[in-house]
Structure formats: C-alpha cells, structure tokens
Amino acid sequence: MTRLLLLGPAREAAGVRQDEIEGATVGEVLEKAVARSGPDFARVLSVSQIWVNGDVATTTDAVEPYDEIEVLPPVSGG
What we know:
By secondary structure, the chain is α+β, with helices and mostly antiparallel strands. It has helices spanning 9-14, 26-37, 39-46; strands at residues 2-6, 18-21, 49-52, 55-56, 68-72. The protein has a 5-stranded mixed β-sheet. The radius of gyration is 11 Å and the shape is globular.
C-alpha cells in the first residue's frame, strides 16, 4: 500500500500523522483519505501541495505500493 504522510494542519484535520492506503493514482489515494477523514481534511487538502517521494505530483500520477505521498499545507508564520 502507498504511505500517506500528513503534515501540520492536514495531520490535525485527519487526526493521524500517516496512513497506508491502496490506490493506483495519487487522486485515488487522496479520495480514499478524504472518505476516511472527512470534510475538514478535504478543505485542507484543497489548498495543499502534493508530493510523491519528494517530487511535486498531480492527482493523475501513478503510485506504487511503496511510494510515499506527502500532503503539505500552506504554512504561515512570522
């Protein structure tokens, strides 16, 4: 299964730091994550960058069982 790593607000919205979800594409994995985690996670996901194995990804990118999808919400600070 593909590992899903959630950072910052994504982690807080989903209630977990990481999960393992089966899917053929980034989009499929993220759809299943939204189904598990609910609308708060969906809102954070809609403004987040998605990376696979350290590279920027799109929802149509294929994933393999040992890939890691990172959800990187925008960060603010001062």
